[in-house]
Amino acid sequence: MIDRRRFLRTTLGAATGVAAGIAAGPLVSSAARAESLNAAVAESAALLPFVDWYHTNELPNTTAENNAAVVILSGMQRVWKTGSTWDSGVPVDHDLLRANVGYCALVTAKRTDAEAKQAFIVDRQHQSYSMIAGLGPLAELYRTGAKAVTGITSAPDGTPPTTISDTLPADAPPGSALGSGATDSALGLVAQLVNAVRGPHTSSNPSKYGYQYPRPWRLNPDSVVVDTGALDDLGYPVYETDVIVAPQLLRQRSKAPVDDAGFVSGHTNAVYLAGLAYAYAVPERFQELMAHAATEAHTRIVAGMHSPVDVIGGRILGTALAAATLSNPVNAELKAAARAQALEYFAAQTGTTDLWAYAHSSGLDTDPYADREANLRALTPRMTYILPREGRRREMVVPKGAEVLLETRQPYLSAAQRREVLRTTALPSGYVLLDSPELWGRLNLFAAADGYGAFDSAVDVTLDAALGGFHAADAWRNDIAGCGGLTKRGSGSLTLSGDNRYSGGTTIAAGTLVAGSRDALGRGNVHVGAGTLAVTAGTDGRPALVVGGALTLARESTLEVRLDPKHVPATGRTVQLIRAGRVRGTFGTVRVTVPGLRALPVYSSTGVAIRLFPA
């Protein structure tokens, strides 16, 4: 409902050797199915929200007719036409795919030895473990409390003699576990939550089989597979390509390309799933975890193992699946328990009641995500990489399951800061949300972590009476920096608190909008239509609401004057309510919340005041 709102959603890693007994042939989409995909997508998407059928994301479901994940990734069909075999697909958008593979060639050609080694570590570590680093000052405390370990702590200088997998190190403490840690540890519930979010219906494999877009090291600059017929020194086929795989990962390549498509990136899907699970349990590091997920995902391109299209697809899939899994009622008790456990554990370990401050107490020398602006500069180009935007811009609607993700008292805040924090898209499902040019799954999670901002279009808030009121707490962050604004619709009420600013203006089309503090709605114009503007009269003689632009009042508009019963101004006294750049029109109805009083509005060219009289 209002812009700024953090994301935290109420809302697996690829299994080796895809499911026994399932032949590769039938899993590859036929040309006929590819032709019918768009129609199937439209029909499926209209029938069921993703969160209601995400459980269909499993083998052997690999088409839009039977898999929700294939549906949400359907934009790929405007770029790539799947063939009848793994190597017979053809580009649809030649320019985009040429840029896609060209970017891989450029990045891998400029890759340093250090970058290659880091790409190896990310490739080989359990993704749930690698995401712990995003916890910053809390990371080592988490590893200890969760008994989370890894066997991959460094990378070889060149190509290792054998394949390498993550295993428990010989010196690991008793009871240790890979990934998110041991489920019977001091942070076992958090580990369980991460495992649940990366559960049985969150694999990227069905989509890989469904789209069969090859890995970049198998593609020439035109996204065509050309097998030269030669084998390299390790026995792998040599393809016509400009993409250079990191030497440490040459033996990790698959020799079964039908089981090893590039789109979507399974590692990217996994790090976003794990990252959002950690962010739910430890929201103090939400923004940093999202920045870390983007960094981890980018190493897939640096490694030569994936392309920008693959990584973007993995982010779409991981975001959607995390929201769906976290919104599943089955996980409701676990979510609450994991958050409570994390808060109690870290408070005890750090000896602080201000966990947010502790989580941001390190500098760049030990916390690579300590600089928020640097995080943003690194993350922003990775939302779309160098790929040209295709198709007409469509309004994004909030998917079911992505409305309210965490609603909790935050005891770690100081008494002055304490408030109920609602971590959400802040919009009911089905309503418009535009926080970037991206669509579902490609939400700007970094902006969500800080609070939604820079909207390009107005945000419609529709509240029905059945939904009751909505209180926009923590509203000092509710700031649309772009040209967008806030539109209040519906019969319910929307209560603002803090300093809310909407550059594109505010429209109260229906229902009640409660301006909760001085300077609320401070930028842009305000238009009051058939709705009600509720303003609390101050006692210091200053206006309670400042409108930077014009205040336009329709004949059917209503002004509700809210008074503190303990500090009612004397009757006959003029009380300033609103100051604006210009006032046009008058309120059709003026009412006072204190019984026995009526208000006479006093208009000027730049403001609205009232005089109180006995009713």
From TrEMBL:
What are the Phosphatidic acid phosphatase type 2/haloperoxidase domain coordinates in residue numbering?
182-326
* Pfam families with a match to the protein in the record: PAP2, PATR
| Cited SMART domains | acidPPc (SM00014)
Q: Which SUPFAM superfamilies match?
A: Acid phosphatase/Vanadium-dependent haloperoxidase (SSF48317), Pectin lyase-like (SSF51126)
* Keyword Transmembrane helix belongs to the record: no
TM ranges are none
Keyword terms:
Signal
Q: Known InterPro entries for this protein?
A: Autotrns_rpt, PAP2/HPO, PAP2/HPO_sf, Pectin_lyase_fold/virulence, TAT_signal, TAT_signal_bac_arc
Can you say what this protein is called?
Phosphoesterase
Source species, please? Phytohabitans aurantiacus
Its lineage reads: Bacteria, Bacillati, Actinomycetota, Actinomycetes, Micromonosporales
